Amino acid sequence: MAAIxxxxxxxxxxxxxxxxxxxxxVLVIGAGITGLTTALQVAEAGKRxxxxxxxxxxxxxxxxxxxxxxxxxxxxxxxxxxxxxxSVIGQVAASRTEAVDYIEETARRLGVDCAFHRRPLYRxxxxxxxxxxxxxxxxxxALLCAGLTASxxxxxxxxxxxxxxxxxxxxxxxxxxxxVQGLARELSRLGVGLYEYSSVLDIDFDHCRAExxxxxxxxxxxxxxxxxxxxxxxxxxxxxPLREYGIxxxxxxxxxxxxxxxxxxxxxxxxxxxxxxxxxxxxxxxQHKTGxxxxxxxxxxxxxxxxxxxxxxxxxxxxxxxxxYGSADGLPYIGRRHGSERVFLATGFAGxxxxxxxxxxxxxxxxxxxxxxxxxxLYDATRFTxxxxxxxxxxxxxxxxxxxxxxxxxxxxxxxxxxxxxxEGRIVALEGDKLAVYRNELGQVSAVSAVCPHLKCLxxxxxxxxxxxCPCHGSRFEIDGSVxxxxxxxxxxxxLSSE
Length: 499
Ligand code: FES
Description:
- The protein is α+β, with helices and mostly antiparallel strands.
- The chain has three domains: 10-64 and 177-235 and 329-391, FAD/NAD(P)-binding domain (3-Layer(bba) Sandwich), CATH 3.50.50; 114-173 and 238-325, D-Amino Acid Oxidase, subunit A, domain 2 (D-Amino Acid Oxidase, Chain A, domain 2, 2-Layer Sandwich); 417-497, Rieske [2Fe-2S] iron-sulphur domain (Rieske Iron-sulfur Protein), CATH 2.102.10.
- Helices cover 26% and strands 31% of the residues.
- The protein has nine helices and 25 strands.
- The strands form four sheets. Strands 3, 4, 5, 6, 11, 12, 13, 14 and 15 form a nine-stranded mixed sheet that branches. Strands 1, 2, 7, 8, 9, 10, 16 and 17 form an eight-stranded mixed sheet that branches.
- Strand 23 (476-477) and strand 24 (483-485) form a beta hairpin.
- Helix 1 packs parallel to helix 7 and helix 3 (86-110) packs across helix 7.
- The site of FE2/S2 (inorganic) cluster (FES) has 13 residues, from loops.
- Residues 452, 454-457, 470, 472-475, 486-488 line the site of FE2/S2 (inorganic) cluster.
């Protein structure tokens, strides 16, 4: 399932897979917005840089994002304010505003046609719900406290009435895939070694070496720009992996609303996008924890029904989903990896990753180059914030413990391979082994181990995306077991195939 940005993919430049052994100054793992922004910072300062990407440039979460760029965060600066106080939300707004300005300036400087436009951001309520009404007032107060210019409104560009809303001017939208493709072109011009389809299978953190199936890279520094760190990392114990669904539609009229439009009740993020004279309406929503989708629920169908209830939809042309990882204390982790001076990471961006990824890329660039950064202490990846993190930490670890116990002990949904419906996946217990079994449209069965190679939780079937998703730390796998994303290095072990 392709994200809307593929429609405008004007760069089919392919980068080779790594073939052989290389030495470099900085190895960046991950060619999304975080990795490529970091790479640009250090390459422009004269460092030798290599970038390894498991898929294509921007092929992970960056290319599945909404393309919205903003100073606050989706959960609200008011939520952060309760944990961190007034000074911190001011710093969050300032660092994120700088990042949006940096994207605008970089796109202009490098001549990247990524449809960057300044747009207002709206948070709106459609019903008079008292709890959410309070949250809107609290958010307005937090935005003003953080030094942003916001106001309450009773009208928005949406074609349906709202109860009340909040408007924040001078935020932005762009095409995230075209932006990172532009960064990649510039990096290539600067002599950076960019390698696609080069999954990292192992990292030796002590010696700063990474290995793919076809080569090795040794570096002075390594940057884990992989959305969540690969392998086992303490941060994963407090981060919540979530999935969200996206659709892009053409409308029967010409009334495409402009702006970042967040309807809060229930949450749907709506924006318009134009490419080659064709308008699209993009909507994101239906968030749920990875691997914990409600059985039998068609999330794409629910998205489409909601959109059709609000807009004159002519056709739904694109469907996709994306993953996010929220941090335990609400701020991203950006900086040195625990116990290492030469390994850097960035994670915990929740649903606000394009702006955080740019904050991270600039900050990591500064750290590698030995420059001062105003934000290094605030976002320090080794920070210890037990009071602010405890609730999420307990929640996540209870969930992991529950999955480890319950998923192994609960009888499986089907007893035998023959019971797996066509076009579906099910967990089947066979001779003491738990298998993730899929039956294709021809009735042929394939099976991989259901045991996630990361930390041994059992994967769950995701019917919307037809993938195996691990509910513990968000690793996701194709039907044949190969890794799509998440901390797992290795695929689900192959068991049998009748194809
Ligand atoms: Fe950690 Fe699967 S992602 S156990």
